[in-house]
Amino acid sequence: MKVNDKDYEVIKLLGRGKGGYSYLVKDNNKYYVLKNIHHELCSYYQFQDKIHSELNDYNHLKEIGINIPTMVAIDYENERILKEYIDGPNCYELVNKDLMSQEILEKVVRISRKAKYHNINIDYFPTNFVLKDNELYYIDYECNEYKDEWSFENWGKKYWSKTKDFEIYELTHREDDFNQYFKLVKKCVDREDMMNLLEINCPSDEYDHESEMIASSISSFSSKEEICTIVYEVFSKMFEGLVKKNRCDKVGEDIFNSLNKDKKIIN
């Protein structure tokens, strides 16, 4: 992907938000986050000029002293933003793995108090916060005029521990994701038919178990190398070393490309 005509190597998709897709990219062994603005409809949020809003929000958050990644470059023509990569676990992962601590909660409460003092809300969903070197970073730039209903106390706090709201969110998204991943993986696995079983008219569900194993181990954030490794490990286990790695790599690349084909990775 390019930012202001400079090429960056895409490593993997990091996430999709209301305003864009964020990718981990690399240049000369240095990592960055590249946000590619999208214009998909959002039922609960209305945007005006997204790219200029991002810049205005960034400057406002910097001015009031909230920890955010440095904006490295902005490409107005292609609506892309390059920012510092904060390497660490996001807080949603910490909650999900029972690693959230009182110390981290106190950090986000301090951030929320500062935001409220300056009459703004930020997006308090825990995927938007990363812990690095004991510092908590808000890795999004979105901020809005303060409203009680979207404050940390009244909304965000519900997702910073394993509350009923968190569990419902996790369960709903995990099941939906798995069903989508299984259909995608099955299509790629069947297309390659690496053991030539479908070719000899074996049942159409011949590879479904392997496809389920792969689908349960990947996400839209998985890199191509990670997916290829998972495919090889699953088929090696199920077919006891009879598979060829180059065919597994072909399936893995097919899965990776299928996961990302709608994510607007443009050279």
Radius of gyration: 21 Å
What is the helix tally? 7
CATH superfamily of the largest domain: Transferase(Phosphotransferase) domain 1
Strand content: 15-25%
Main pleated-sheet profile: 5 strands, antiparallel
CATH class of the largest domain: Mainly Alpha
Class by alpha and beta content: alpha+beta
String of helices and strands: EEEEEHEEHHEEEEHHHH
Poorly predicted tracts of residues: 41-45, 262-267
The CATH architecture category of the largest domain equals Orthogonal Bundle
Total number of distinct structural domains: 2
Could you tell me the mean pLDDT?
A: 88
Give the termini distance in whole angstroms.
5 Å
Give the overall shape: globular
Strand order of the largest sheet: 3-4-5-7-6
